[in-house]
Queue: 2 jobs
Job 1
Amino acid sequence: AAAEGSPGDGGYPLIAPTLPALGLGAAQRLDGQGGRDPRAFFVGPELFIFYSDAAGSGKELVLRRRDASGALAPATKVHGHGIACDLVAQAPGLLLVASDSERTGTPQQTSLLRGDAAGAAWTEEKSYVTADSWICTGIPGAAIFRPVGAQARVALGKLHDTKLFGCTGEGLWAASVGGSWEPSPHAAPFALPAGAFELGGRWLVGSPSGVFVSEDGGASFAKLKPGAYLTRELLRTSSLVQGQGELLGVTSYDWANLRHLDLLRTADAGTTWSRVTLRKVSANLFGEQLAVDGASLALLWQEGAGRLLAHSPDGGQSWSHPVALPAAASAHLAVRGKLAAVVLESAAKEVSLVSASW
């Protein structure tokens, strides 16, 4: 027990929290006939919740929008197939990237979709093949580069069939030029992109395989080295997000027979990084997600058989006591101000929303 932290141990902020626990609301079911792979994104005060309708083919991507008052709009069909990967506002409406992990007999594709500001109507602008064999299935991931201007860029994961050792992950990126997406994407070394940014001409893409940087407009990418601050583990993250004047990431790893959960940060576009271990436990710890809005952070992770949620109001300096979420097969996190939203998929393929406030 001492190795996992004890009361008063300030070295691990999610073992000895300094803030009260989140106020957790009751789960609200969203789907009518079952759903899978839910994702949640805040655009301003509105929450956009996407999931695959489990009725029929089980591939239709639908949207439930919750406005600032908390009212939920009826379900809207977004696309014939797919899993939502990222959503941003880009005038005059919305830009969504969705990956199709359910295609059979043909390589999977990732699509760029344009919606109106309310998400009521959607059109597909471009699709890119993101697997070179129909046997490669999964969610390769995608992230839209921030900030988003008149020209949008997207980082795409790609699944590659090695023909001998199964499917491995690679990367692609593409840009919209003059309102049209490039006909073919550019190759890149990152896999499973989990956040993409352009800061002062420097491109950064976070992924579980590392953090990659390009200083020549995407012509080449280099994997950042961890540096002396982090000798135990590679510099990598399952979520790369932008806080107040810095980028933040989260990662988990094994060290000295314990599972560690670390918060990473850089204030100089990835040149230097710092790290704090938030939690270390003997239980299996994985599936970490980080969401941010200004100084407000929310962190979701799986520990043992359950999922936990905690928040920080000050950019990760202090943390609340973790609270347990309802049992779920998958979960996705979004945050806005003092509100965290978690969408859950149950083992029975029911989609629900849990809100937490502080």
Job 2
Amino acid sequence: MVEVFGTDAEHVQVARDFLERVNADDAPLRLWLGPAQAATPTDLRLADCDGVALAQSQHLHRAVRRNTGQLVVTLADGEGRVRGRGVVGTRRSVAGTIAAASRVAGPLAVHAATADSRAPGSPSTQRTPSARVSDAAGAVWFAGRLVRAAVTYREWACAPIAALDPEQGRLTRCGEWQSGPRRFWADPFLLSTAVGDWLFMEELDRTTGLGHIVAAPVRGGTLDISAVRRVLATDHHLSFPQLQWVDGRWLATVETCAAHNPVYTFDAPGEPWRSIDDLPLFLLTLRIR
């Protein structure tokens, strides 16, 4: 079976819960989450593409300093032999990125159980970069974003179009752009059903900086602004609604920074969304290579 242990108790439990749900009980693997120095040579631990433990990885420090947006993470033993492999998004600090990688240790272990081991890579012989330097560079980049945002007025809007000319980059609207001093609409998703069409989108409240999901019926080729309904709102920013009809019911997802991002359903377009937890498990959060 896949045995998960280590000093990082929170992520150890997350990985164990995941492996229990997918019944990963046929692979004799030991996965250590925590400082790599405490692991035994045969234990798998989070590493970079060269098999170097993440805390000592120059790839990780470089990704944080340069804000590359993603990092290849693997599971490797004490000799640098790589097993599971995936990609995670980088954060503004080395510790934050390691935490993000720790949250997908379970899926990585599933991949490691079925993947052949790969010989150690050729990591650089230079000393491990300072986490303080990498974190400081990441903080400077983020501060630059804040300064730019403070002097930039961002604007999105939605409107129906009658015709689009891809070659000349022109479009013909059949309604007004929907935006205003207190809110704007973005990330539209058009849903066509036998009983009518609906446009789902993010509505961002400029006073709070948070987006929620609204739905507007499309009637006569234009949006019925008088019938806009808020279908989903939480304490976090929501965007990019996606909807599908699956096995006799509506399923919907959004993008959010919340730790828990469930799948939703609703009775009919325009009705409030509610979360569901009876779907089969899919490995959607980790890109396996």
